[in-house]
Amino acid sequence: MSAVIKVNLPSESYDIAIAPGNLDKLGAQMASLNLGKKVLLVSNPAIFRHYGERALNSLKDAGFDVTNCTLGAGERYKNLSSIQKVYDKALENRLERSSTMVALGGGVVGDMTGFAAATWLRGINFVQVPTTLLSMVDASIGGKTGVNHPQGKNLIGAFHQPRLVLIDPQVLKTLPIREFRAGMAEVIKYGVIWDADLFAQMENCDRLDQMRYIPESLVQTILERSCQAKADVVSKDEKEAGLRAILNYGHTIGHAIESLTGYRTVNHGEGVAIGMVAAGQIAVELKLWDEKSQERQVNLMQKTGLPTKLPAGIDIDAIVDALQTDKKVKAGKVRFVLPTQIGAVEITDKVPSDTIHQVLQQM
After folding, report:
1. In this structure, what CATH number is given to the domain that contains residue 57?
2. 113 plus 129 within the same structural domain
3. What domain range includes position 283?
4. 192 touches 276 (CB < 8 A)
5. Could you tell me which residues come within 8 angstroms of residue 301 by beta carbon, excluding any fewer than 6 positions away?
6. Could you say which of 116, 146, 174 is where a domain stops?
7. Which residues are catalytic?
8. How many domains does the chain have?
9. Domain boundary among 157, 174, 191
10. What are 126-183's pLDDT values in tens digits?
11. Between the chain's N and C termini, which has fewer beta carbons within 10 Å?
């Protein structure tokens, strides 16, 4: 079971290669891209312990001159001081314009490595080797890189497309259950915004809360169709001028919840799940979609073990205030991605704040 999905962009196209055992082919795949010899592999301690040696050996066997750098694990390390560590390693190892940074890890490692690559020597090569479900289906594709500011998520960043995204589904076997579920939130998102058939295939699976209950063929389908959905959207709108904003479904309220809980209580996928339930309910209140579709969405979240209610003790006024600092605010108006049917959404800035309040109150 293997697939190659092309991300076609005006600037530079690249492949998303999905196959069991791909991690050991990293060096060979990169060698075929005619990259420079020097490589800096960036990871976090836990991922490096599991997969660092295999990645390094694969690169060395293909003739690359490799060094590595590990950064703290988790969203709270996604800041400029972590980027400084990458720059220090790049300088120490004399990375050049033709050199490559490889991100081995989840979305946080990918975002930071991509941002470091985008800004080192005004932009060097960058390869994504995602090790979490969330980064495989979402964060590693599309060239969004960046770090958090104390006042908000991903406020500092750049668009910098990878030269390759290499996915090995086998590495998901060491992924903690909670992280697997977080990734499933993004997969459900693709079902709602783009791919009704993927949504239905997941509904037909008895359990989605742990990878071991999902048939291998469905795992491959989930990866392929999610990556294809992201590639389709990004190919049509690389810099988020219009269509690409639909990928933010659930993220508007989700980011606010993550931020207000200090990135410690609620992880990204859990925030997105709660945000999707809220957006779905807002769409019901505004008569954009029906109760039955909202029920299907909530049932799929619950089957995956994702939260559908706000975390205890969170201040609703604080959520509404936090929405104003979101990157998606335009001319002072919060833009929401709201579903109209399973497989289609629309973007609107006409959501009355009392509707937001009312829905959050119910949750």
Report:
1. 3.40.50.1970
2. yes
3. 177-362
4. yes
5. 185, 188, 273, 276, 277, 307, 308
6. 174
7. 122, 144, 186, 230, 240, 244, 248, 251, 255, 268
8. 2
9. 174
10. 999 999 999 999 999 999 999 998 887 788 999 999 999 999 999 999 999 999 999 9
11. N
Between CA 305 and CA 314 the distance in angstroms is 21
Specify the pTM. 0.91
Q: Are strands 164-167 and 14-18 parallel, antiparallel or unpaired?
A: parallel
Residues of each annotated binding site for Zn(2+):
186, 251, 268
Q: Are residues 158 and 45 located together in one domain of the fold?
A: yes
Lowest-confidence region among 61-70, 206-215, 233-242, 346-355: 233-242
Mean pLDDT of the residues in the chain? 94
Please name which of 313, 337, 315, 335 lies closest in space to residue 326, comparing C-alpha atoms.
Answer: 335
Contact call for residues 107 and 81 (beta carbons, < 8 A): no
pLDDT digits (tens, 9 = 90+) for 306-347: 999 999 999 999 999 898 876 666 666 789 999 999 999 999
Say yes or no: 159 and 183 in one domain: no
Alpha-carbon distance values, 33 to 18, 95, 127 (Å): 17, 18, 11
Are residue 118 and residue 231 in the same domain, yes or no? Answer: no
111-133 pLDDT, tens digit per residue, is 999 999 999 999 999 999 999 99
Whether 204 and 258 share a structural domain: yes
Domain harbouring 260, CATH code: 1.20.1090.10
139 and 38, same structural domain?
yes
Looking at residue 327, what is its pLDDT?
61
**Do 219 and 130 have their domain in common?**
no
Residue numbers belonging to the annotated binding site for NAD(+): 107-111, 131-132, 144, 153
